[in-house]
Specification:
alpha/beta; 12 strands; 32% helix; 19% strand
């Protein structure tokens, strides 16, 4: 990637919700360069969606935060409401998981696409309509879609409309929050390919939030693996998936369906993620980890480079025993 400042730079993000004992997000660091795709991977409840929503200042009621979330150099956590509206209109945009829940079924697609630009930037309706037609073309849809209602479109077409809506303000950063989960496998592949193509065409940074390591490997340049609100491992996609250094990453990969996998039941990760109503001591993955020892249960691991000096320079891990995975493939 280039040497320009990151379009997203999260440092030390902690987020606490009412009636929880521990932070939902606990010291998250994450960066995305212009034109780079970064995947955020983890089980449900790991904190992925809250991390992505914090980038737009979409925090739950009563949430308190520490750290910084900088988008194109500006800290979202200190923005005023008018400045947040500007951010959501032009600098960053989100593609939500369920397009049918995000689009008013009683309004035409053209109204949905143009409303934000007309209200927040004062763009004339004619110019906004032309922009909407251009963005629909960019995602492979005909301008005729502008006159249709959501109920007249398939799920895959609606997700393309959501992507077009996210592109309307020419954002520097796209946030795709489980954007393919509600789609069938064929449409998933089409949307992932489309996002990759748009990233290259427009030079947009992309945060791809998913629980599916296979999809993350397909689209991303780098990957962050999240567990219990913390980053367990991060690195270039090929190195992280081929040579995982954290037992949780290896367990996620082992539980991912593959065509070349042996027949029989899929592997599963024993146990449950930690409860937000309980304090964490040591490594949060220790109760479910086959490599855990006393130090894992008593002392939280520090984030450190993975491997020796000849290894991937951006590969980092938070694990006391990452060397025990040395030489093992992520697909074993």
């Amino acid at each position: 990637m280039n040497d320009s400042p990151p379009v997203l730079d999260i440092k030390g993000l902690r987020l606490q919700l009412p009636d929880t004992v521990r932070p939902v997000l606990d010291g998250v660091d994450l960066t995305i360069a212009a034109g780079e795709t970064v995947a955020l991977v983890g089980e449900s409840g790991s904190g992925k969606s809250l991390t992505s929503r914090s980038v737009l200042g979409l925090l739950p009621p009563g949430a308190t935060t520490e750290g910084t979330v900088r988008v194109a150099g500006d800290d979202v956590l200190t923005m005023t409401p008018p400045r947040l509206r500007e951010l959501r209109t032009g600098t960053a945009a989100m593609i939500f998981q369920d397009p049918r829940a995000a689009i008013n079924p009683l309004r035409r697609i053209g109204d949905f696409l143009t409303e934000s630009l007309r209200l927040n930037t004062g763009m004339r309706a004619e110019n906004a309509g032309r922009r909407a037609a251009e963005m629909l073309a960019a995602v492979g849809l005909s301008p005729d879609v502008l006159r249709r209602y959501p109920g007249q479109l398939s799920g895959g077409m609606l997700q393309r409309v959501m992507i077009a809506a996210a592109l309307m303000g020419d954002p520097a950063l796209l946030l795709a929050d489980e954007a393919t989960t509600a789609l069938d496998v064929t449409t998933q592949a089409e949307v992932v390919a489309l996002l990759g193509d748009l990233r290259e065409r427009f030079g947009t940074g992309l945060l791809f939030v998913t629980h599916d390591p296979g999809l993350a490997a397909t689209i991303s340049d780098r990957v962050y693996v999240m567990y219990a609100g913390r980053i367990a491992e991060t690195g270039p996609a090929d190195a992280l998936f081929d040579r995982p250094k954290h037992p949780y990453t290896a367990a996620l990969l082992g539980a991912t369906p593959r065509l070349d996998a042996p027949q029989g039941r899929l592997a599963a990760i024993d146990g449950q993620p930690p409860d937000l109503r309980q304090e964490l001591t040591g490594c949060p993955f220790a109760p479910r980890c086959a490599y855990a020892t006393d130090i894992c249960r008593d002392e939280a691991p520090a984030d450190r480079p993975a491997g020796d000096e000849d290894g991937p320079p951006r590969h980092r891990v938070s694990c006391h025993h990452s060397e025990r995975l040395e030489g093992k493939s992520g697909h074993e």
